[in-house]
Design a protein that fits this description.
The chain is α/β, with parallel strands linked by helices. The protein has three domains: 205 residues, FAD/NAD(P)-binding domain (3-Layer(bba) Sandwich); 104 residues, Flavocytochrome C3, Chain A, domain 1 (Alpha-Beta Complex); 73 residues, Up-down Bundle (Methane Monooxygenase Hydroxylase, Chain G, domain 1), CATH 1.20.58.100. The chain has 15 helices and 17 strands. The strands form four sheets. Strands 1, 2, 6, 7, 8, 9 and 16 form a seven-stranded mixed beta sheet that branches. Helix 12 runs parallel beside helix 14. The structure holds succinic acid.
Length: 528
């Protein structure tokens, strides 16, 4: 099948791209959107907090830039930060014009939440289900657009790459239909990856099951450079609920509204530890929670919601109030048991300021990309901002380029895959991988632990490759290979860091005196 542009991923970044590309590409532009899961199962849909942007007269682009740079701990690309932050108000305006129902007062002024690392309240939101609201608006636009053809249940396996005159370019993707296992080639002049993050490499994650890092893994196999993979943001407050199949997020906006973190013994957790207290950058709060849990042996700390009150809590956070209510916890009155959980990949496929990767005709937007906005840790609610702004820039670049025609007749078709078939061995290795990443490349890391993880992950990847060479391989091995390759990239990038910054914290580095030559950011080494 052929198109002018293929978008892989149907979350907010993918839909924002498709919608803008349709507007800029003009009549006759054929776009194909391939998504493996319904949009309700995407990370975008689950987003609670909102979109960080400058609204208040007492706020400014400069303050938002400075907050982003501070949380990014010296690893952001300041040019990209300025560019994205400046575009925020326009992105919100476009969504409002398209019908987004962001919370506002009786005069129509947007109500803003405050989250970690921000010096101002600047998070535009729809109660505690902002992602679902933005998805609602964008999905309608995408569905109305005749030039966008959406194919669901397509699991993209690999990028198609050709080399002509020593220059490589991406010409499309190979994808498997989830129901039938049929593998097909999809060819296009440009491919945009919007495949989301990789939270599933950890035992506890706020991400949905689809967050297996597949776009990043495809880029690794195609030799496309990544950046900053070491920096995995752990959200400080996921609901501790050992009986639940998925880990539920308790939005940082709850702390922004006045809730306080307590140690297992009930003492204030962040008192005296950071000037921003409970709203310090996420990496700082997550580490303190992790240390408090480790010292006490408790599986969680507490989030005291009493300062908010029951009425305000259920008005502001109806989704969280419902989920807590099912556990007998009254939001706004009770303490919620919380623990950190893997939340966001700050790094990813390295792109320029228009979302273009180092491989010709390959773009990446949203969480699978590293545009340079986040650096070593992501400022809260900057991800939806990036997911709205960067797709617009990618669409502008593609619309202004001469789109090369798709290449036909390439070899390399995969044999059919058995989609429903699992493998006990692959399942067992997947559980081991998650345990290894959580223990060795999680919130607090050691050199020995990271080395052990890297070596074991390489062996798991090799076992996957061997299993995939067999006839009619089970799907489980494809997904495990993606997880193992992305996890190994995280471990390698973490081992390359020369200093602790943002979400990377190695106990051995923390214990060493700073010596000349060890002060580099690790940035140069962290390029694959
Ligand atoms: C939250 O609501 O705490 C999450 C928002 C984000 O990850 O930026």
């Amino acid at each position: 099948m052929e198109a002018d542009v293929i978008v892989v991923g149907g979350g907010i970044a993918g839909m924002a791209f498709a919608e803008r590309m349709a507007a800029l590409g003009g009549a006759g532009m054929r776009m194909l959107m391939l998504s493996k899961a319904p949009v309700e199962a995407s990370n975008s849909y689950l987003a609670q907090g909102g979109v960080a942007t400058v609204v208040l007269p007492e706020d400014s682009v400069e303050q938002h830039v400075q907050d982003t740079l501070a949380v990014g701990a010296g690893r952001c690309d300041e040019h990209v930060v300025r560019l994205i932050v400046q575009e925020g108000p326009k992105a919100i305006q476009r969504l409002l014009e398209a019908g987004a129902r962001f919370d506002a007062d009786a005069q129509g002024r947007l109500l803003l939440a405050r989250e970690g690392g921000h010096s101002q309240a600047r998070v535009v939101h729809h109660r505690d289900t902002t992602g679902a609201e933005i998805v609602r608006v964008l999905r309608r636009r995408v569905m109305e657009e005749p030039g966008i053809h959406v194919l669901e249940h397509q699991r993209v396996l690999d990028l198609l790459v050709v080399e002509e005159g020593g220059v490589k370019r991406c010409t499309g993707v190979l994808a498997m239909h989830e129901g039938t296992g049929k593998v097909a080639r999809f060819e296009a002049g440009a491919v945009v990856l919007a495949t989301g993050g990789a939270g599933q490499v950890y035992q506890h994650t706020t991400n949905p099951p689809a967050a297996t890092g597949d776009g990043i893994a495809m880029a690794i196999r195609a030799g496309v450079p990544l950046r900053d993979m070491a920096f995995i943001q752990f959200h400080p407050t996921a609901l501790f609920d050992p009986g639940a199949a998925a880990t539920f997020l308790i939005s940082e906006a709850v702390r922004g509204a006045g809730a306080r973190l307590l140690r297992p013994d009930g003492a204030l957790l962040m008192a005296g530890l950071h000037p921003k207290g409970d709203l310090a950058p996420r990496n700082v709060v997550a580490r303190e929670i992790f240390r408090a849990m480790r010292q006490s042996g408790a599986p969680h700390v507490w989030l005291d919601t009493a300062p908010i009150g029951v009425k305000d809590f259920s008005r502001m956070f109806p989704n969280i109030a419902n989920t807590c209510g099912r556990l007998g916890i009254v939001g706004g009155r009770d303490r919620i048991p919380v623990m950190p959980a893997a939340h966001y990949s700050c790094g990813g496929i390295r792109t320029d300021d228009h979302g273009e990767s180092a491989l010709n005709n390959l773009f990446a937007v949203g969480e699978c990309a590293s545009s340079g906005l986040h650096g070593a840790d992501r400022l809260a609610s900057n991800s939806l901002l990036e997911a709205l702004v960067m797709p617009q820039r990618a669409a502008e670049r593609i619309a202004g380029a001469v789109i090369q025609p798709p290449v036909r007749g390439l070899p390399g078709q995969l044999p059919p895959i058995q989609p429903g078939l699992t493998s006990a061995r692959a399942d067992c290795l997947r559980a081991e991988l998650k345990q290894l990443m959580t223990a060795n490349v999680g919130i607090l890391r050691t050199l020995a632990g990271m080395e052990e993880a890297r070596d074991r992950l390489d062996r798991i990847s090799a076992e996957c490759e061997a299993a995939l060479r067999k006839a009619e391989p089970a799907w489980a091995w494809f997904e495990l290979r993606d997880l193992a390759q992305v996890a190994a990239a995280i471990a390698r990038s973490a081992l390359e860091q020369r200093t602790n910054a943002g979400a990377h914290w190695c106990e051995d580095l923390a214990a060493m005196p700073i010596a000349p030559g060890r002060q580099g950011s690790g940035a140069a080494a962290d390029r694959t």
